[in-house]
Amino acid sequence: MMKKPIPYALIAILVLAAVLRVSWIARGDTMNDEVFYGFRAIGPMDFDEATDQTTPWEWFDPRQNSSMENLGGQAGIPWWAHWSFHDHPPLVFWIQHFSIGLFGENNFALRFPSALFGVASVYLLCCLGRRLYSERVGLLTALILAVTLNHNYISRLGMQESYVIFFLFLGLYFFTRALQDDRYWLGVGAALGLGFLAKYNVLILAPILFTYLLLFRRDYFRKKNVWLGIVLALSLASPVIIYNAMLYRATGHFDFQLSYIVGQNPDVWKVAPGKEIGTLGERIANFIPRMIATNSWIFLALIVASLAGFLSRVLRNVRISPRTPLWESQKGVLGELFRRHAVLLISIVWLLALLAKIGPSYRFLTMLAPLLALIVALGIDACVPFFAERRRMGFAFAALLVGFELFYTVNNLIAYYPAGPAPWLSSKVRYENYNWGYNALGAYFKKELNGKMPALTFDVKYTFLDAMQNRFLQKARERAARPYPALIVTYGNFDRGAKLWVLDRLHMYHGWPVITLDTYVQYLRENGPDYYDRVGFKTQYFVFHTAIVPTPEFQALIRDLPYESIRNPRGEEVFRIYKRSATFDSN
After folding, report:
1. C-alpha 484, offset from chain centre
2. What CA–CA distance (Å, rounded) separates 215 from 355?
3. Are 444 and 537 contained in the same domain?
């Protein structure tokens, strides 16, 4: 049990962690993979208009006759296709779906669950550090993880890694409990099974635990609760297992991730976005630069210093005999040292092996953050006797470290734009949700379409989109939304992810007509210059991305139309929205 003062310290750390992870979490445009999770979580539906990664929902749709013929003529989305998604397990999508249901279709709802899992991970690391080492190490680990950039970065995005980190270390924590009380193997199984439903990377927990048991506790392989934990993990993972079994039966291959892992190359996924990770040598070469890009230089220096201090203490305790091999003379000391740090060392080795396989992308490197925080905590803990006699120096040192990490995190994740040079004051992770101006564009249309519903809709390609739009339109009618005959036309070099969240979401879920300028012009050529007026569109919005030079054709189209500038937080014009309404006379 913790002593009385410690819970207050832990509460303060958790409050700090929550403030850093939740404050202004909606800032930053939705541009990376968080869009492709959050967009599908709204429905939820396994579709995001990705031509390179079509989905079973598209293949089995009754309107796709050629696809149905290839799949045995099965019509309609089968029951099992709702149990998972073609590229990832379902848990993150469902949690985000619940959050969006509570808070609406916005950045906060998309990212808030990640922040909660991030704060929970800080608490878990305190518990894990306490069990492996001491109460002080646990608190130090929690404090470091609470303020460091890397873990805050992933906790403020609607991606899967914050969930992965939580379930991975929840499993490790239950494992340390299970070594004293084997009933906790059910907790290990639950963490592994639920983690598997979040992302397959959590399976790295299995070889970590297996390696430890193989080295130190082989007797556990015969314990009933270990196997009950495995059964529980498989039971919780069964939706994805059934999904893949049925998908293989219908198509001859597994889902996008598993088919890649086992070396399948299905025709529907000839292109594999996200798998361009380079050779093993390139991945290893990228590791250090990307660590520098995703952590503060002080945090990295503390990691190096902690490791150097650890090696120095080891060497001071090793007596080398010229007649006896090092291992033979010191195997008792080294063996005990390895046993003491086994969970930490084995976890690091297996996570590094995983990164060597999948590549050290920014978000994958976040899985190392808790272990690195634990290493730094051990290094600082070893310095406590030194600072015990130099308290002022110790307080100044602690204030400097925590203060700088706080500044670095706030400067790079909460401020609209980081101040100072990289990597000393700013970090490249800010570009993961940079403030380009898409949030302002989304806010414009949220205000413009508030209380309204589309009076006219376009035909859609799939029946499931029809059903989804009808569901949302029915909700709009129940809210007594006013029919509004509007058309949105986009022109320019839009980021695909940002456009999907800000504009295409309005079309695919809510039925608002959103088309590109090329499509708009094509219909005018085929049906006459007054086509959209005849159809009944009373208002037309032309969304122009100012990063390109407009063609004379577009300039003629919007000549004399009033427009509104959409600016990013720096005040730079990013978009212009030209508005043509029935009451506007261009002559």
Report:
1. 36
2. 23
3. yes
pLDDT confidence of residue 317 = 67
107: tokens are: 């950045």
Give the Cβ contact number of residue 207 at 10 Å: 15
Instruction: Give the tens place of pLDDT for each residue, 361-375.
Output: 999 999 999 999 999
Percent of the chain with pLDDT strictly greater than 70: 93
Are 442 and 406 members of one domain?
no
Three-state DSSP class for residue 341: coil
How far, in Å, CA of 192 to CA of 208, rounded?
12
- Domain boundaries, position 332: 282-410
Question: In terms of domains, do 398 and 287 share one?
Answer: yes
Cα–Cα separations (whole angstroms), residue 444 to 97, 541, 561: 24, 11, 18
Say if residue 442 is in the same domain as residue 528. yes
Judge whether 45 lies within some domain. no
Q: Minimal CA–CA distance to 513: which of 554, 551, 483, 477? A: 483
Q: How many residues does the chain have?
A: 587
CA separation for the pair 387, 276 (Å, rounded): 48
* CB burial of residue 484 (10 Å; 0-12, 13-18, 19+): middle
Do 454 and 575 share a domain, yes or no? yes
Indicate whether 524 belongs to any domain: yes
Is residue 247 within 8 Å of residue 390, measured between CB atoms?
Answer: no
Distance CA 305, CA 3 (A): 30
> Which of 368, 391, 410 is a domain's end point?
410
How big is the CA angle at 585 (ends 584 and 586), to the nearest 5 degrees? 110
CA angle 408, 414, 416 (to 5 degrees): 110
- Cα(372)–Cα(129) distance, rounded to whole angstroms? 12
The Cα–Cα gap between 239 and 90 comes to 9
Q: Are residues 406 and 348 in the same domain?
A: yes
pTM: predicted TM-score of the whole model, two decimal places: 0.93
Tokens of 586: 């261009």
pLDDT digits (tens, 9 = 90+) for 143-193: 999 999 999 999 999 999 999 999 999 999 999 999 999 999 999 999 999
Return the structure tokens found at 456. Answer: 């006219």
Residue 484 near residue 539, CB atoms below 8 Å: yes
Q: Which amino acid is at 391?
A: R
Position 351 in a domain: yes
How far, in Å, CA of 93 to CA of 80, rounded?
Answer: 16
List the one residue out of 61, 84, 94, 92 whose CA is nearest residue 254.
84
Structural domains counted in the chain = 2
The span from the CA of 550 to the CA of 531, in Å, is 23
User: Cα(528)–Cα(78) distance, rounded to whole angstroms?
Assistant: 42
